[in-house]
Amino acid sequence: MASHTYVATLKDSTTVFKNDIFQGKILFCTGGGSGICRGMTEAVMRHGADAVIVGRKLDRLTQTAKELSAATGRTCIPAQADVRQPKMLQEAVNKTIERFGKIDFVICGAAGNFLAPISGLSENAFKTVMEIDTLGTFNTIKATIPHVRQSKGSYIHVSATLHYKATPYQVHVSSAKAAVDALSAVLAVEEGPHGVRSNVIAPGPIGGTEGMQRLSNIADGNSSRLPLGRVGDIKDVANATVFLFSEAASYITGQVVVVDGAMEHMRHFQFPYPQAVLDPGSVQKMIQGKL
């Protein structure tokens, strides 16, 4: 029996796309202080854009902004805001306009997640995830759309693949991300005549991220059994971001781009089933995530 020998290559976007394709463009990114959204922001900046990263923790945002500016030679500034608070988001947008004069690209990436069965999920916990992911995306759209219309710009919403199949312990984020996908599709139709595009990137498990560490056991498995021989990398998502914001994707809108190396087609519940739903306490030690 032949062993799995192929491992998908991992390229930096600057080896594929010209370095100046986003020269003069301005990116507004919620959730840009860390993880996947930080990587998406860095990739866009490496191609000439300046950026504003938005989040609740100003100290982390400030440090990240300094690091991104140093790494790319572009300008990145922090803007503290809770996406659940429209007034704070509007202030972040105002700060962006005062500094840069416009907004071309928006990444809606603020999110929250943890593991819990419906029977053990409080109304407040469910509501919190819906507010951060879904309402936060809506609020970001509302605050930025006048400027994105003016620039004929583009949105990318960071979603997930959890709601494509029933995923136990993930009803809150599955509901929230399904709504985000719907928001993006409607936005694409309503704003297309204004010259605005809207797409979704749905990452699968991405190595080196907090979500991977807290919510998945794939990293502990055998990568040779995965379709492309490895788990996803933040650069994989970043490369999709550069493409979707580029002129090469000018006729792509209202779509969901899954970045998971076909892993969704092989996904199964990571805890013993039905034991995990009949007796949640028996798998408590396996659950590390919390809000």
Automatic annotation (TrEMBL):
Key words of the record: NADP, Oxidoreductase
InterPro entries xrefs: DECR2-like (IPR045017), NAD(P)-bd_dom_sf (IPR036291), SDR_fam (IPR002347)
MF GO annotations: 2,4-dienoyl-CoA reductase (NADPH) activity
Is 4Fe-4S set as a keyword in this record?
no
Record's catalysed reaction(s) = a (2E,4Z)-dienoyl-CoA + NADPH + H(+) = a 4,5-saturated-(3E)-enoyl-CoA + NADP(+); a (2E,4E)-dienoyl-CoA + NADPH + H(+) = a 4,5-saturated-(3E)-enoyl-CoA + NADP(+)
Gene Ontology biological process terms in this record: fatty acid catabolic process
One GO term describing the cellular component? peroxisome
Recorded E.C. number(s)? 1.3.1.124
Gene3D superfamilies xref list: NAD(P)-binding Rossmann-like Domain
Protein name stated in the entry: 2,4-dienoyl-CoA reductase [(3E)-enoyl-CoA-producing]
